[in-house]
Structure formats: structure tokens, C-alpha cells
Fold:
Amino acid sequence: MHLKHTGKHPSASTPIYVGRHIVGYVRGGVFHKTLRSNHFLQKPRAIAFDMSTLREAEQAGAQRVEIVDADSQRIYRASISTIHARGFRVERGFGEQWALPLSEWNNAAERAQQLELFAA
Structure:
């Protein structure tokens, strides 16, 4: 699902903010966010989040995260528990952030868990 930041959000979703800016939405237990690939960390290669957005997404019922790379349209998926367990703290002048290496996104365990959810 590719969400454009039009100031409106899909029905039955909860907007997630950094300050006054909407950065994504929680819908159906998934935190959806669109990023340009130049916003990914380069060293190490990872996707970072403001800690506040992860907390807010969890409070809104998110258990998983789905990132759409706006440049390549590639979709990255991970559970929030994986982000917490396998991620790392980032302090590079943009506030408190937590990042998950690209190698941890879309892993086999996550896909198996998603298949179980769809089978239920």
C-alpha cells in the first residue's frame, strides 16, 4: 500500500506524527510509512524511526511496520518486536531514533508469521 502525504489519511486509520507533520498511518495493525531511499541510513544500511513514532504506532495498535521506498516502490516489512529486538539506537542530530538493518527486513520468519495470519 503506497500512501501519499496529502494531508488526508485513509478511513479507519490513525495518523502518526513527528511534531505537526504526519509521517505515516496505522491501519489494520500495521504502521504504514513511505520514505525516499536517500532517507535510509547509509552506514550501516538501515531504516530508522523516531522513537516517538514507534511508541505512537504501538499505542494505535500496530504490531508490524511496512515501509514503501518511494523511489523503487520496494516494500520493507518487519514486526515491531523485531525492530526492538534486532535494532539499534541512532543519535545523529535528528532526535532519539531506533534503526533496523536492511538485512532484517522481510526475513523468512516474518514471512512465515504473515502466512500463518492469512491462513487463520
